[in-house]
Prior knowledge:
This protein has helices at about 10-15, 95-110, 160-165, 195-210; strands at about 35-40, 50-60, 65-70, 85, 85-90, 115-120, 125, 130-140, 155-160, 170-175, 180-190, 190-195. The chain is of the alpha+beta class. The chain is globular, with a radius of gyration of 16 Å. The relative contact order is 0.25.
Amino acid sequence: MMLNASMPVSRIHIIGAFDGPGIDPPSLDEEGDTYGWVAQDRTSLPERITPAAVLVPLIEREEGMTVLLTQRPRHLKSHPGQISFPGGKTEPHDQTPEDTALRETEEEIGIPRETIDIVGRLGQRTTGSGFKVTPVVGLIKPPLDTVLDPQEVESIFEVPLSFVLDPANQKIETRFIRGIDHQFYVLLFENFYIWGLTARLLVALRDTLEIR
């Protein structure tokens, strides 16, 4: 069912938009826009690719669904201050991407895995830093009892799902990096600049939920 961005999105609609946990939709890499960019030279993909997973947490607020995002600490050497989903690389004891996403979420922001209802996956995405990321979508009912790992997360915040799903809030910018023009998605929410892989996955969420 195609929804208008102004219409509230229900739990039933979200669950029905996915094929269920553990099932991969087509890879976002196959769409020709790797790394979280809209346009990117695929020949520059890293030779070594490490599997990873992130959780796309949808919070079931009474006033409407929200998406929970994290901000990385500004002291980190890799992607300081950037907006991201909780997640990280797959460890040997992780049997599935869902295991990775739930473990990393509990480690980074303290939300227990048993409180997260996994509904499905978005398409896998290869990043310029050499990770093949599986995005796992989960529903969470408040209240949230979060505990942040200061080495991994500086802060968390929520964006209304209605904002994320409105195409008017999804911009495309161009940046000249290492001799190549890169186009990438950007969402500007309050004082947060959401771009790269995180923004690309939010666009993929909109497409999966069939919002126009």
